[in-house]
Design goal:
Blueprint (H helix, E strand, L loop, with lengths): L19 H18 L7 E2 L68 H5 L5 E6 L2 E12 L48 H8 L10 E4 H8 L8 E8 L2 E6 L2 H11 L3 H10 L11 H19 L19 H8 L11 H5 L13 H9 L1 H4 L21 E7 L2 E7 L3 E2 L7 E7 L6 H14 L3 E8 L2 E9 L5 E2 L2 E2 L2 H18 L6 E6 L6 E5 H6 L10 H16 L9 H14 L6 H13 L34 E2 L2 E2 L12 E5 L29 H21 L23 H4 L1 H19 L15 H26 L3 H21 L5 H23 L4 H9 L3 H11 L8 H4 L5 H21 L7 H32 L8 H23 L3 H30 L9 H21 L6 H24 L8 H17 L10 H25 L4 H24 L4 H20 L4 H16 L2 H20 L7 H37 L6 H22 L5 H19 L10
Helix pairs in contact: 10-15, 10-17, 15-16, 16-17, 17-18, 17-21, 18-21, 18-25, 20-27, 21-22, 21-23, 22-23, 22-24, 22-25, 23-27, 23-28, 27-28, 28-29, 28-30, 29-30, 30-31, 30-32, 31-32, 32-33, 32-34, 33-34, 34-35, 34-36, 35-36, 36-37, 36-38, 36-39, 37-39, 38-41, 39-40, 39-41, 40-41
């Protein structure tokens, strides 16, 4: 104790040696955080405290005041309260209800904050050395409505406080908003005070704060071991936060006697606790102390120091009777909740505007539901001020040791001059300060971080003196000493006890200690209330549900919210829904269900290799009700309900003796605040979407139930499935009908931009029902879209079409309700139509399973039926029927798919989404190009089928030409689509298909030309054929130019080259076989054929190793063969111009040799190789016929025989094939064999073999003649003689073999092979001729 005006000592520093600059930075950071968390008009700052070394002015009027004697710290050793004893002077516990001992400081409007101290806040936390113990305390003001702090006026001695001052109960800026109350600061806590604070500081609830309560409730709990008075508090749990409110049993039961409410609790109370309950009236002394305290505070603000009588008109207010003040001072209790009929039905109170899309917006909109539904006026008259309003002068975030509390306080703080922050108390000088009063004063100053206390003493209302006491000295005052360490232990034990037993969110727990009892009991009122007829009789039900809802809203709207907290949000919302009545709170229920659906990320990709979702990670913020509760016990014994007396079986938990609260860590829980809520594991996409749809359905039901015009709607039974019929192409009108439906769709899309809204249920645009239903419908459409996409990946195309139909029906309803279509929703629609086009295309390509797809399409769950029923309340849902019908016609399905893509593209174009979503735009155009290619191929194949099936006709039919036009138009549009997005590869493929279409046109004209000429007329290559083949070549060349190089796409490049080579080859072959000699000269035809063949050879890649390489080699060999044959024919028919004849001879020999080389590389073309070699022999014979000298002829004959010898490989391949064929025929029955293919092959072999035998015999005979004539000459050598003998023997063997009839084909080939071996051996020097077989 020191005199007022003495030197101010420094506030004790924080233990742990934290540097001053670190403290300052931490304070500034926390201040910024607090400011960001509050609305703009409110600033966040720290409570004032003295700064070390501050210089203040001296006030002379206080220097004569005496010091108060302190109790030495040694007197506090071992002092802990226990049952039946306290720490008051003399060892006897003082009565807690002593007059003025627990009086409230004053009116709520007297709490002020200094402007200077707010700019430079004091330390955030301080370690107080109190009575040899230390506690850590830090207080941060989160909100204050107090006016600027004013200095208090020292009253002159002998001032009579029984006389009212002139300013009593009048409005005053110094007193704040509560200046007119007769009671000053009401000590009575209000029934929902913690909820008001929780609503205002929703960020702190469930996460950072352990307790939210009025400071009076906190003090009452911490004084339990010292006090004999009763304790009655309601406890609620939200996450890890406990909300504490006073439960005034007397007021509650008085109301029950009048209204009949709460009778179940009154009966329970009388049966188990107090059988002879009766209301206790407050004494006259109580009202007397209240009155002089109020007058004292007004005197202190007035500052004139003299009593001024009040005018006669105000005199009756000086001494109000208890009956008159009861309703003002008492905390009136609410009746059971009843929704006013106009709340949910009147949409006129809702804000008008466009429909929001962001979940955070709709959550924020519905988060204001209490305001929109007038929740503050849901209670009877006189209760509105005690409803859900935070009416504390200041809200403080108080950290006491490791306990974080959000506390509401109305304690007046005075300041000015030498003492910028002090609390002011009035005490009866005849009554000493006891322990309860000391703890009360100490906790008030600690919570508000006020360093000093000014005490005014009076005797019978006459002011005697003032004294100044430091906050840290209060625990050591004479007659009022207590241990701060014990207070800390009490706080920790009570918090652990409550958190260990108040485990269910949404439940109302009742902490009760009877007057004069040492036993503290905890009851679950929600469980008791559920045993009654109406579970909504608990008035805490609605505020708790709204708070759960608000906490979930707040967590949802945090942009940086981690998904691991989704389990907590889900638990909050589910508990909220359990508490609310569906018929009374449709808006909150609809919004909660919508938020539950938003917790599931529909477009979230499934992680491979993970059995659990990342949403299942543990979190410290909450718990799961589904988990099994473990018994709460520790080494000091159990404090659960199992050890309760028989009469207390209803209690959840019991503290057997209040003395246990003083034992350190007596009730420290052995487990955490329950494990975290686990988010449900969805093993697949369908399960996740079904959960979303279940929440959407509940939300839609809630919205629909709140709409007035229910009876005006067309009757529909949700249990009756809506028939999903499909129509045949003949009924629906085909592609022509699609064109009309598409035009109507585009008109509708245009009207959406103008803001038309057509709701059949009569919802008012802008009402909460309208906004909420829009969001729920949009969510359902997204869920059905994801379900359709998942079914598509599983190749369940019927199911996929059913889901995308529901998605489009939902979107159609959204369009009917929407007054301002946003770009994001239009993008969704474009995506839906794109997927619908994919499904229709896959259905067309898998027509064999149409029956199974139809069964999948017609199946419908009850949930889908109910959602569709809700949609039909607003629209017919037929806007996209053209896109979702399951047709049986292939052309119709392809057309529908194309129209879906075109509609998706149109939406992107007219809504300017093309530039905002380039990836989706590219995908749509790719699909448009692809479907147009599919339709073009479909028409092209139809035209080819007509060509093969038609009867002989002299002209092309009109139907065929129409199909060509359709196919060409589709290819042309598809090429344009791909070129617009620079997709060279796909553009090249469509150009290639267009070239194929031109070839089909050419073939059709060729067939018509052949039919026109008749069977006897000679067929010629027509101009129409040439025209279309040249067009095909142009398209193939465009495809190559589109690709640029082979590196772009080797496969497509090779394919286009092959098609181009084939076109040149076909055109050259037709010109060669059916030369148009009636229009062109022979030389011109030969030139065109040669050029076309060489171009075909140019685009035929024989060197690159690929699957097509054998085909290319065969094609190249055939080209060389045909060119050689053409030059051979020219040489035979040409007369004169020896130079040209020589050129043709050289070219023929060149192409024959190249053809032989290429055919020798192939293992499956022995007949072609044999034919080419025979033509070479014929070419040699032709040359020999024009020779005159014997030497030249002999040389030519020798070359021809060499060519015959080189056919040995071809005969070996033929023999091998025949041998395998005969073995297969032996192993298989004649019925299973296929003789047609073998006979055809044999006929060709027999024909070639006969030609070969005749030509070989001719060559051997001519060789024998020439060698025999040369023998007569002197120059005849021995080698020639040997060759002559060899040829004679071979000729003889050949004649005998051909003369023997019949001989098998295999035997004839063996003879030929033997003769080849004989001739080869005879040509070698000294070779021996083998004997005949």
């Amino acid at each position: 104790m020191r005199k007022l005006g003495s030197e101010v000592k420094a506030w004790p520093p924080v233990r742990g040696g934290e540097p001053a600059h670190a403290q300052r930075e931490r304070r500034e950071a926390l201040a910024r955080l607090c400011m960001a968390a509050l609305p703009p008009p409110v600033r966040s700052f720290f409570l004032p405290s003295f700064r070390p070394g501050a210089e203040v002015a001296r006030e002379e009027q206080w220097e004569s005041l005496p010091r108060r004697r302190r109790v030495p710290p040694s007197a506090l050793s071992g002092g802990r309260p226990g049952p039946g004893r306290g720490l008051a002077c003399g060892g006897a516990m003082a009565e807690p209800r002593e007059a003025g001992a627990e009086a409230a400081p004053g009116p709520s409007g007297l709490s002020v904050l200094p402007g200077e101290a707010a700019e430079e806040p004091g330390p955030q936390g301080s370690v107080l050395l109190l009575g040899g113990n230390e506690v850590k305390s830090r207080a941060v003001v989160k909100y204050s409505s107090a006016p600027p702090r004013a200095a208090f006026a020292r009253l002159e001695e002998k001032t009579d406080l029984k006389l009212p001052p002139a300013n009593w109960l009048r409005e005053s800026a110094k007193l704040g908003p509560a200046g007119t109350t007769i009671l000053g600061n009401s000590k009575r806590s209000k029934p929902f005070s913690s909820f008001g604070m929780a609503y205002d500081f929703i960020d702190s609830v469930g996460n950072d704060v352990d307790v939210v309560s009025d400071s009076e409730n906190i003090k009452k709990l911490l004084k339990i071991p010292y006090s004999k008075s009763h304790v009655s508090m309601a406890v609620h749990r939200i996450g890890r936060t406990l909300l504490l409110d006073e439960l005034d049993i007397q007021e509650l039961f008085m109301r029950s006697s009048q209204t009949g409410d709460w009778t179940w609790l009154k009966e329970f109370y009388q049966r188990l606790i107090d059988q002879k309950w009766q209301r206790k009236k407050k004494s006259k002394e109580h009202w007397y102390q209240k009155a002089i305290l109020s007058k004292f505070l007004y005197y202190s603000i007035n500052g004139d120091g003299a009593a001024q009588p009040v005018p006669s008109s105000g005199e009756p207010r000086a001494s109000p009777s208890p009956d008159q003040t009861h309703d003002t001072e008492g905390a009136s209790w609410p009746a059971p909740f009843e929704m006013p009929p106009s709340v949910s039905d009147d949409p006129s109170t809702s804000n008008q505007g466009s429909e929001p899309l962001e979940p955070s917006y709709i959550v924020g909109h519905v988060a204001s539901a209490p305001k929109e539904q007038n929740l503050t006026t849901l209670f009877n008259d006189g209760e509105n001020s005690q409803g859900l309003k935070n009416d504390f002068v200041r809200n403080i975030l108080w950290t006491f040791e490791d306990i974080h509390m959000l506390v509401g306080s109305n304690m007046p703080i005075f300041g000015g001059g030498r003492y910028p922050a002090v609390s002011l108390r009035l005490r009866d000088n005849n009554k000493p300060i006891n322990v309860l009063t000391g703890i009360d004063y100490w906790l008030d100053n600690l919570i508000c971080n006020v360093p000093e206390l000014v005490m005014c003493f009076h005797v019978n209302g006459i002011v005697q003196k003032y004294e100044m006491i430091k906050t840290e000295e209060i625990p050591n005052l004479e007659n009022s000493n207590f241990s701060t360490k014990v207070i800390k232990d009490i706080a920790q034990n009570i918090l652990s006890f409550l958190k260990s037993n108040c485990t269910k969110e949404g439940h109302t727990y009742w902490l009760f200690k009877a007057s004069g009892s040492d036993i503290v009991k905890l009851y679950d009122l929600t469980t008791l209330c559920e045993e009654t007829e109406d579970k909504y009789q608990n008035p805490f039900t609605v505020p708790v549900a709204i708070l759960l809802y608000k906490v979930a809203c707040n967590m949802m709207m945090k942009k940086n919210q981690n998904k691991k907290h989704y389990g907590t949000i889900r638990t909050l919302l589910l508990n909220c829904l359990k508490l609310l009545d569906k018929g009374r709170h449709p808006q909150i229920i609809a919004s909660a269900n919508y938020m539950l659906s938003e917790l599931f990320q529909l477009d979230e990709p499934k992680k491979e290799g993970s059995s659990e979702s990342p949403l299942n990670e543990n979190s410290d913020e909450s718990y799961s009700e589904e988990e099994e509760e473990m018994p709460d016990s520790d080494e000091n014994g159990s404090y659960g309900a199992s050890s309760d007396p028989p009469d207390d079986k209803k209690a959840v938990a019991v503290i057997k003796s209040v003395g246990e609260l003083s034992v350190p860590e007596k009730y420290k829980s052995i487990h955490q605040i329950r494990p975290s809520c686990t988010f449900p594991v969805c093993h697949d996409t369908e399960e996740r979407c079904r959960l979303v749809l279940s929440y959407v359905l509940e939300g839609l039901k809630s919205v629909d139930s709140s709409i007035k015009k229910e009876s005006d709607l067309p009757a529909a039974d949700p249990n009756t499935p809506i028939p999903l019929k499909y129509e045949d192409e003949s009924a629906s009108g085909g592609p022509e009908c699609l064109e009309k439906q598409m035009a109507l769709f585009l008109d509708k899309m245009g009207s959406l931009q103008e803001g038309h809204c057509s709701s059949q249920s009569g919802m008012t645009p802008g009402s909460w029902q309208h906004k909420m239903k829009l969001q729920l419908i949009l969510k359902s459409s997204k869920a059905y879209y994801v379900l359709s996409d998942a079914a598509m990946s599983l190749r369940k195309y019927g199911r996929a079409l059913r889901y995308i139909k529901l998605a489009l029906q939902s979107h159609d309803t959204y369009c009917c309700l929407c007054t301002n279509m946003l770009s994001e929703v239009l993008l969704f629609l474009s995506q839906y139509l794109t997927l619908c086009g994919d499904i229709q295309l896959m259905l067309a390509q898998n027509a064999n399973n149409r029956a199974a797809y139809l069964e999948e399409f017609n199946y419908q769950t009850k949930e889908d039926q109910e959602i569709l029923h809700s949609l039909h309340r607003e629209s017919s849902c037929q806007g996209f029927a053209w896109a979702t019908d399951l047709s049986t016609d292939l052309e119709c399905q392809l057309s529908v798919s194309c129209k879906c893509y075109e509609a998706a593209n149109e939406i992107l174009l007219f809504s300017d989404l093309k530039s905002q979503n380039p990836e989706h735009y590219v995908q749509v155009l790719k699909r448009m190009g692809n479907i147009r290619n599919e339709i073009g191929v479909f028409y092209m194949n139809q035209a080819a089928a007509i060509q093969t099936e038609r009867v002989v006709s002299k002209s092309v039919s009109a139907a065929e030409q129409q199909l060509w036009k359709k196919s060409f138009s589709c290819f042309e549009k598809g090429i344009h689509n791909f070129e617009s997005i620079n997709d060279a590869t796909n553009a090249a493929l469509l150009l290639c298909n267009t070239g194929r279409l031109m070839r089909i046109c050419a073939q059709a004209h060729g067939a018509a030309a052949a039919a026109a000429g008749g069977e006897d007329a000679r067929r010629e290559f027509s101009p129409e054929e040439a025209l279309y083949y040249n067009k095909a070549i142009d398209y193939y060349l465009k495809a190559l130019r589109s690709l640029g190089t082979r590196d772009v796409h080797p496969t497509v490049w090779d394919s286009v080259n092959w098609e181009l080579s084939t076109t040149y080859f076909t055109m050259a072959t037709l010109q060669q076989d059916y030369a148009p000699l009636s229009r062109k000269a022979q030389e011109q035809v030969e030139k065109e054929v040669s050029e076309a063949m060489m171009k075909s050879l140019k685009y035929c890649d024989v060197d690159t190793a690929s699957a097509r390489q054998p085909l290319c080699q065969y094609r190249a060999a055939t080209i060389h063969h045909r060119l050689a044959s053409m030059y051979h024919s020219c040489l035979r028919n040409q007369v004169g111009d020896e130079h040209l004849r020589k050129q043709h001879r050289v070219l023929a020999e060149l192409h024959y040799s190249k053809a032989v080389k290429l055919f020798q590389l192939l293992k499956d073309a022995p007949c072609e190789l044999l034919r080419v070699q025979l033509e070479r022999v014929a070419f040699a014979e032709f040359q020999m016929a024009s020779q005159n000298s014997s030497v030249g002829k002999l040389k030519t004959l020798s070359g021809a025989l060499d060519i015959m010898m080189k056919t040995e490989r071809a005969f070996q391949l033929i023999r091998k094939e025949l041998t395998e064929e005969s073995e297969q025929s032996k192993s298989q029955s004649s019925s299973t064999s296929d003789p047609s293919a073998a006979s055809l092959h044999r006929e060709e072999v027999v024909k070639l073999l006969s030609i070969f035998e005749s030509r070989l015999a001719f060559l051997l005979l001519q060789s024998i003649k020439l060698l025999s004539s040369a023998r007569k000459k002197a120059s005849h050598s021995e080698d020639e003689e040997g060759l002559l003998q060899t040829n004679k023997q071979a000729y003889s063997h050949l004649l005998r073999a051909t003369a023997e009839q019949p001989t098998s084909l295999l035997q004839r080939i063996d003879v030929i092979l033997h003769l080849m071996g004989q001739l080869s051996a005879g040509k070698e020097p000294g070779g021996a001729v083998p004997p005949p077989p």
